[in-house]
Design brief:
It contains eleven helices and seven strands. It has 244 residues and is α/β, with parallel strands linked by helices. Strands 3-4-5-6-7 form a five-stranded mixed beta sheet, sandwiched between helices. The protein has a two-stranded parallel sheet with strand order 1-2. GO terms for molecular function: pyrroline-5-carboxylate reductase activity.
């Protein structure tokens, strides 16, 4: 809601990808250069292997007044700056799927020519989509392993929670809703209290109670080590993609 829809111009090769933008009231085009001519803040949301061709196409139209934000996974600031005119204000952004429901987790890093003004503008615009933090570029691949891919780990855990309840006799739909609300509430407590998750976990446990018995089973299954390994694997894969 921070930018009027008619102030946004979206470009894509096919109408299929532009229909959603039109439904929101945005203007659309099939010409990338038109976006550069009419906009100062430009988001590049392409597949990584397509981005170099797009950058080559728009390079002649990029000027000192433009701010270019790349969402392409694995494409470094160094590569972006090399393929755009010298001095272009470039930022690299990595969102995650829950941005579509304004509950995302995003990190961004700025290139050598982007200043505080550009960073503040990007953070202000994206704050309505969830948490947005500026980080060193080296953290972006870690963010991919933690949050970009991490959404899928949470869905797997939510599915397992619900299936455990189904096993014990609860209807599946109800179990799924309660599992989702449980995850939402736990996350909200972490954010609003600022407490370490170990402290909050300890608050739930009572001596000899249900929770400590359940946690013992999770520890026997090496849940923590397995999740840490998953974050490491996804981060390493993101690094490999950047090399490719």
């Amino acid at each position: 809601g921070k930018v009027p829809a008619n102030s946004i111009l979206a470009s894509a090769p096919s109408d299929k990808n532009l229909d959603a933008w039109r439904e929101l009231g945005c203007r659309t085009t099939h010409c990338n250069l038109e976006v550069l001519q009419e906009s100062t803040l430009v988001f590049l949301a392409t597949k990584p292997h397509i981005l170099p061709g797009v950058l080559q196409e728009i390079r002649p139209a990029v000027g000192p007044h433009h701010v270019v934000v790349s969402l392409a996974a694995g494409v470094t600031l160094q590569t972006l700056q090399r393929l755009l005119p010298a001095g272009t204000k470039v930022l690299r952004l990595m969102p995650n799927l829950p941005c579509v429901v304004q509950a995302g987790a995003m990190v961004f890093a700025r290139g050598s020519s982007a200043g505080d003004g550009e960073a503040t503008l990007l953070k202000s615009l994206l704050s309505s989509c969830g948490l947005c933090e500026e980080v060193p570029e080296s953290y972006i691949n870690i963010h991919t392993g933690l949050s970009g891919s991490g959404v899928a780990y949470v869905y797997l855990f939510a599915e397992a929670l619900a299936e455990g309840a189904v096993k014990m006799g609860m209807p599946g739909g109800l179990a799924s809703r309660i599992a989702a609300q449980t995850l939402l509430g736990a996350a909200k407590m972490m954010l609003e209290t600022g407490e370490h998750p170990a402290k909050l976990r300890g608050d739930v446990c009572t001596p000899g109670g249900t929770t400590i018995h359940a946690l013992h089973q999770l520890e026997k299954g090496a849940l923590r080590a397995t999740v840490m390994n998953a974050v490491e694997a996804a981060t390493n894969r993101a690094c490999d993609m950047a090399k490719d």
